[in-house]
Amino acid sequence: MKRYLWILALAIGAGAQQAAVEVATPTLGYIYDDQTRTLRAIEGVPGAASIGAPMHLGTGLDFIAVSPSRSYALGYENGGDNIVLVRLEGTTGGSRASGLPRARAWFSPSGETVAFDLGERAEVWTGLPAEPRRVGEFSTGELRVAKLAVSDDGGMVASLAGGALYRLSGEAPERLGQAVRDIAFERGTRDLLALEASRLVRFGKTQADAEETLLTGLQEAEAFAVARDQRHVAVVGAQVAVADLRSGETAYLDSGESRFDGATRAEGDAVFQLHASTGETWLLEGGGTPRLVALAARGNQ
Asked: Model's pTM, two decimal places?
């Protein structure tokens, strides 16, 4: 949606005249609406944001994953043969067929590389969204993959399966840890972050002997996300915590009776989009004095 700001301009010797200046609505992120089988944009700025109307993407989708760059998404229809690439621009979008594998997809931190779960193997593509190309294949063996994580260069893939963490290769998966809840690579590196119920750790270059604890004292943590500034991290579960990875300072926020099971980075240096177990979407501002805000749909949408 685009809004128009009317400015009264004074022209010397010509009196007053009106000019229309187009102002784009800021977009912080997107949510999937399973009733309309499309996306809704989170419109506005932190502290004054709302969930917009269902977007017209050209087709209804039963699965959709939005890139961390928020410039595109991947999705498919149940029973469909192809995965669809959706180009996103603020509150508008359009879809087209692609030659990408029709499978569950996970993005690298930049969003330019994607790992697809194809059963006994994970296939990695890079160059998205403009020039997708297949760059590698990793064996998942007999793992029942719950989640994949892929580095920006496409050279490293990790998997969660049965609560255990594995590093994938062309051969058998290598176990790195157990009781892991969530994983993600740091941007531009092969360093892997792994979340356990009470702590967040880093595996340098995804090596088991290069484990470093970043955060401790967490309570029943379920998911985490690293902000665009690569400095702040949000951890959700029985509590909501936001930490500064440089200073080590951690703030805990009161979420009342709400419990969260998902977190992604939103537009902004230290802004996060949180998913509550009830289905609600919240925004977390992590910089300065952190605050947590529940989002509502605009009007009666």
From this structure: 0.89
